[in-house]
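Question (not urgent): is this output format expected?
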Amino acid sequence: MTDTMDTSSVEEKVRAAVTKAITELSDAGAVPRLYINTKALGTIFPEHILQASTVEITLRPEYPLNLEHTSQGLLADLAFDGALMRCFMPWRSIFAVSDAKTGIGICIRANLPPLAQLVEPEVSPPPSFRHVKGGEA
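Got this back:
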């Protein structure tokens, strides 16, 4: 019983974070982009989209998305190759939300697909500095 309560608590936190990110980006005039794990249970997309392990969905305001936040996930009317389809993205499938232009946003580590969890970002060494006197190097 604890696992069920923990799972629903995690999903509620994800729901709140995703909803807040989408709302704040939209209110700021930015275009939200969702990063979806298509292998998450309950995800509904066209079959050819489900062949990839992840998909990026850009929520462009000029399209009538009919976006609906439910207790289980997001519903949206999305077009793929010109064909409109009602798609479903469970909260557990959404692993990031960002500004489509800048890439700045949130990452939900608990929802990262297994392969994405293995890839660590490259860490650059810190820059080296030299003390410069009077503008001379």
